[in-house]
Amino acid sequence: MDAPNNTQNNVPQLIDINKLTPQAKEQAQQLAVNVDIKDSQSILQYGVQAQSNISAFSDTILTQVKTKDAGYIGDSLMNLGQSVRELKIDKIGGGGFFSRVPLLGNFVNSVKRFINRYEKVSTQIERIVDELDKARMQLIKDITMLDTLYQKNHEYLADLDLYIAAGQLKLNRVYAEELPEIEKTVAATADPADAQKLHDYKQMVHRFEKKLHDLKLSRTISIQTAPQIRLIQNNDQLLVEKIQSSILNTIPLWKNQVVIAISIFRQNKALALQKEITKTTNELLTKNSEMLKAGSIETAKENERGIVEIETLKKVNNDLITTIEETLAIQKEGKVKRAEAEVELVKLENELKTKLNAVKNA
């Protein structure tokens, strides 16, 4: 809706009224007709409602930035990473098992100890996931709410454009018709009272011009607010995506890997135990069964080939941890950007309030 920096009767034309919709153009013309330059209250109240909406709206956005501290989400993700680290898959069954003779009691107790440790960690993770899911739902609500604020800001901007366009029309008439008429009367009568009226009228025109300038400043604030809202929304959306990735991908994958680790551990234990049983059975046979004994041992050895190595599981677990750490880095960066946005908004709000106070006290 901005127009080129042209002027008409020395009045800056920020809004090109010819680019307004027919309805908006008619509203601007009606507003211009209703403005009484000689009435101080008319000037004082001109565009106040639109300015008040912008001021209140800016406070609302600033509040959103101040309260939008997603640090607790980052803490939850960090706790999630620590919980994953606590369950050391590569320690399942303890080290050096295959260097000693396996016993059935050791096999059962080793698995039980690992499962008990997993259940404790799993409980912690489920609690963290619940917290993250609640945070995700709140962020989704915030994104919808910010869409509403964005639309309101657009509406406030349209109101300001109407008042600015109407003010331009009024000033054009003042300089083209009303002011020359008064000057003509003063020149013809040379009456000091008429001269005073002219001076008073020019002062009122000056006040109206200052009022129109304040509306233009409010318009700039409204324009700057739009990308700020989108920035907050984008940060919220990134958080939602990361939380969803953790809940829907990272956690289930981690649980699957635990199940796989336990299964492989049990397979290795069973194979080792079967090897010992075979060895013991062969000792009970007569020495004439040497070929059968040798064949059983070779079969057992062959069965042990091709088992998935524990190093693979360790790499998968490390990759999961790296994913979470990268997520935390992104969250940290988002938090810094929000802090910067908050400082900038506070600065803009203070500048606006200082300007409004200066206008009020002028």
UniProtKB/TrEMBL annotation:
Sections of the chain in a coiled coil: 329-358
The organism of origin for this protein: Saccharicrinis carchari
InterPro entries reported for this sequence: Toxic_anion-R_TelA
Family listed: Belongs to the TelA family.
Full protein name: Uncharacterized conserved protein YaaN involved in tellurite resistance
Taxonomic classification: Bacteria, Pseudomonadati, Bacteroidota, Bacteroidia, Marinilabiliales
UniProt keyword annotations, A-Z: Coiled coil
Pfam families, alphabetized: TelA
